[in-house]
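I had to read the description of the data format several times before I understood it. The format is easy to grasp once an entry is in front of the reader. For illustration, here is how one protein appears when written out as sequence plus structure tokens:
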Amino acid sequence: MGEAGSMFIELDVYGDIPLHEQIAHQIIAGVASGSLKPGKTLPSAKKLASALRVKSTIVHKAYNMLMDEGFLQERYDGRLGVLVPAPSEMPRVTEGYLDRLTKQLRILAVEGRARGMSEAEFSKACISIYRSDLTRMGDSLE
């Protein structure tokens, strides 16, 4: 758990998801919820790592992953840092994303079916998650 500026990220250090992926997912959730607005500069990797009490290489890895995907970009005004791109520059739905989505949903659908879950129940769960806030960060990201 940590706060850097107005950015709040919660890490599960004992979970199965690597820390850099948790950081990346929560930044994407901030973008999706509108908490991280276009043009918002994120804290330096060193500053965020310090606030989260993790190695800066972990935050660098998250930032690089997000820059590769297009969710963050380097500042071009001579100042160091990364920022949230304009909506027109955000990544779109790609074949790679759809492939990843299909693989992950297939695993969960198979398990749901094995547990006796109906198609309607599975669809309702997916829709509920899609419509949800997508983030526990709420107003702490601005």
About this structure: Residues 1-6, 137-142 have pLDDT under 50 and may be disordered.
